[in-house]
Structure formats: C-alpha cells, structure tokens
From TrEMBL:
<feature type="transmembrane region" description="Helical">
    <location>
        <begin position="176"/>
        <end position="195"/>
    </location>
</feature>
<keyword id="KW-0472">Membrane</keyword>
<feature type="transmembrane region" description="Helical">
    <location>
        <begin position="68"/>
        <end position="86"/>
    </location>
</feature>
<feature type="transmembrane region" description="Helical">
    <location>
        <begin position="12"/>
        <end position="37"/>
    </location>
</feature>
<dbReference type="GO" id="GO:0005886">
    <property type="term" value="C:plasma membrane"/>
</dbReference>
<keyword id="KW-1133">Transmembrane helix</keyword>
<dbReference type="InterPro" id="IPR003339">
    <property type="entry name" value="ABC/ECF_trnsptr_transmembrane"/>
</dbReference>
<dbReference type="Pfam" id="PF02361">
    <property type="entry name" value="CbiQ"/>
</dbReference>
<protein>
    <submittedName>
        <fullName>Energy-coupling factor transporter transmembrane protein EcfT</fullName>
    </submittedName>
</protein>
<feature type="transmembrane region" description="Helical">
    <location>
        <begin position="124"/>
        <end position="148"/>
    </location>
</feature>
<feature type="transmembrane region" description="Helical">
    <location>
        <begin position="43"/>
        <end position="61"/>
    </location>
</feature>
<feature type="transmembrane region" description="Helical">
    <location>
        <begin position="92"/>
        <end position="112"/>
    </location>
</feature>
<keyword id="KW-0812">Transmembrane</keyword>
<comment type="similarity">
    <text>Belongs to the CbiQ family.</text>
</comment>
Length: 223
C-alpha cells in the first residue's frame, strides 16, 4: 500500500495542468505561425509535417477544418491569376508558395482555437498582458467558431432569396458588391450586437473593478 501511494504521488507531481498545457499550445502556435513566414523554402517540408500532426490532432478531437480548407482554395484561386497577370507564367510557383505560407500560418491558430478553451487562453495571456487586452483576445478567439457558423447560415439564406453570390456567380466581379451587402454587412452587424452583449455581461460581472480578475477554474476539467 505504501509503494502504491508513492507511485501515485510521483504521477501527480508530473501531471500538467490545463493552464500549463494551454501556455505550451499558445507558444507552439506562435512559433509555428512565425516560422511559416520566416523559414526558407527548403524548411517548409518540416513545417508542413508538424502542421499535419496538429491537423490530425484537431480532427481527432472532432473539430472541422473544412472552412479553413475552403479559405485556402479561394485564396489560391485569387492569388494565382494576379501573379500570372503581374509577373507572368514564370512566377506561378512563387505564388503557390506564398499562398502555402499564409495557409501554414493560419493552421496553428485553428488548432489552438479548436483544442483550447477561451478562458484558459485568457488566463495565459493575462500573465504578460493587461487583463482587458487578454479578455478581448480570448473572447475574439472564442467567437471564431460561432461567427463561422453565422456566416454559413446568412450565406445560405441569401442564396435561397436569390442573391447572386453563388460560387459560379462570384466569378463575375460585378457580383462582388452584392456579396458585401448580403453577407459581409449582416455578419458585421451581428458581430457588433454580440460584442455589445458580451461587454454588458462583463460589466454586470464587475469586470475591470479589480486589478487581477479571476478565471473559470480548470480543476473541473482535470478531475
């Protein structure tokens, strides 16, 4: 019984808390996102391998990456024609590398928001940032999945109304303003409403009245 108790104590000593794991995930995401822009082309293969492991981990936790993939495809479809018009056919590969770097810079952020809770991110950020800045950043990260879902719903409703914003219709630049009026502006209005509600909720909880605000405890997650 005594030996088993000592083993349990050793396991408890080396156990990583949710906040420490979030700090490691945040640091890893920053390093990988920065490496996407600063690493030479010869090192991008290793970065792709590491990001692929993050994607596997995120998908394993049942998080969807389809929206990010569509964004990458859309960026590629917009960037390559511009590179062809400005630099010619000889610089097409460079255009692909630029899009790849941007996509690799976005992947760690997706993994971080998909695997870490906003309250843990806010707690880690408050170690080096003012509490209000940490709250705003953490709240923005937490809003990403919700705003993506809202954008999908608004887009689907506008398409049912007959707006010329389908992928085929958007091939014509004349329909781009309609996308702004039908989708972008409603999403911004919804975001402003939600931001106002969050600010009111924070005020009712007396946020900002103390220098070191508390965070939702992580002990329940570790039990």
């Amino acid at each position: 019984m005594l030996v088993n108790g000592r083993k349990a104590n050793k396991v408890a000593v080396f156990r990583i808390s949710a906040t420490q794991y979030c700090a490691f995930a945040l640091l890893l995401s920053l390093v990988l996102s920065s490496g996407a822009f600063f690493l030479p082309n010869s090192a991008l293969g290793w970065l792709i391998l590491v990001d692929a492991l993050l994607v596997i981990h995120g998908v394993y936790l049942k998080n969807k990456i389809s929206a990010l993939l569509r964004l990458g495809v859309a960026q590629l479809a917009l960037t390559l024609p511009l590179y062809y018009l400005i630099h010619g056919e000889g610089q097409m590969l460079e255009g692909v590398i630029v899009v790849l770097r941007v996509f690799l810079a976005l992947l760690p952020g997706w993994w971080l928001s998909a695997t870490q809770k906003p309250e843990r991110i806010g707690e880690v950020l408050s170690w080096g940032l003012p509490a209000k800045w940490a709250f705003v950043i953490a709240a923005s990260i937490g809003l990403l999945p919700y705003m993506l879902q809202e954008t999908k719903e608004i887009y689907a409703i506008q398409c049912l109304r007959g707006a010329n914003i389908t992928p085929k219709a958007l091939r014509n630049p004349k329909n781009w303003p309609e996308l702004i009026y039908c989708v972008v502006l409603p999403v911004l209005i919804q975001l402003l409403k939600l931001s106002k509600q969050m600010a009111k909720a924070a005020k009712l909880r007396h946020f900002g009245s103390v220098s070191k605000p508390t965070h939702w405890p992580a002990k329940r997650e570790e039990e």
